């Protein structure tokens, strides 16, 4: 069974704005239908993805070590990190909130770090291993990325609810800012990665964004 041709072999480029398959014979810079810029591959995809991913890893350390909220009950206050907050909610019987925070704050970022690193390394090594599965993995990373903000939302909601009680108060701490930055930079990292590179047969320069199949001219 013959392998279906790729867009580059047909000299086509898909417009990211309107979805038109544009003929690249004369190397047009804009989509003929909507005028959006045309790129065979995302500009500096690997470089930008690595940069955003490493930045998020740097912010992930203080996000877990610094307190994300301060809980004051009956006049005495205590700071809580992400993990201590999970344990505190669990011990007080709020296992559902504890599970949500653990998944959103610990599991999801960890999965994204591992998945994006795997995608980047395999693309740079021109690996042909499990291309279809890696494409599905990238879509999964995109899907779960937005749910990482649940931790920030939970802290905000809990703080708002507790403020209705006269004997207690909850205030966010600097750790939640770093966690928010982790979420933003991991999302930027996933958005910068071009999954079409997974299917490229040969890449002229592993660090270059213009990753194209090498088409014989003779």
Characterize the main sheet.
3 strands, antiparallel
Helicity, in percent? Answer: 40-55%
From N to C, what is the helix and strand string? EEHEEHHHHEH
Number of helices: 6
**Taking strands numbered 1, 2, ... along the chain, how are they ordered across the largest sheet?**
4-3-5
Low-confidence runs: 203-218
Number of strands: 5
**Apparent shape:** elongated
Radius of gyration: 23 Å
Can you give the mean pLDDT? 75
Q: Could you characterize the architecture of this molecule?
A:
The structure is a single chain. It is built from 6 helices and 5 strands, in the order ββαββααααβα. The chain has helices at residues 45-65, 82-91, 95-124, 131-145, 150-162, 174-192, and strands at residues 12-14, 21-23, 69-73, 76-80, 168-172. It has a 3-stranded antiparallel β-sheet with strand order 4-3-5. Strand 1 (12-14) and strand 2 (21-23) form a beta hairpin. Helix 1 runs antiparallel to helix 3 and helix 3 (95-124) packs parallel to helix 6. Mean pLDDT is 75; it is low at 203-218.
Write the layout of secondary structure elements.
Layout lengths: L11 E3 L6 E3 L21 H21 L3 E5 L2 E5 L1 H10 L3 H30 L6 H15 L4 H13 L5 E5 L1 H19 L26
Antiparallel strand pairs: 1-2, 3-4, 3-5
Summarize the structure.
This protein has 218 residues and is mostly helical.
Output the keywords.
3-stranded antiparallel beta sheet, 5 strands, two-stranded antiparallel sheet, 218 residues, 50% helix, mainly alpha
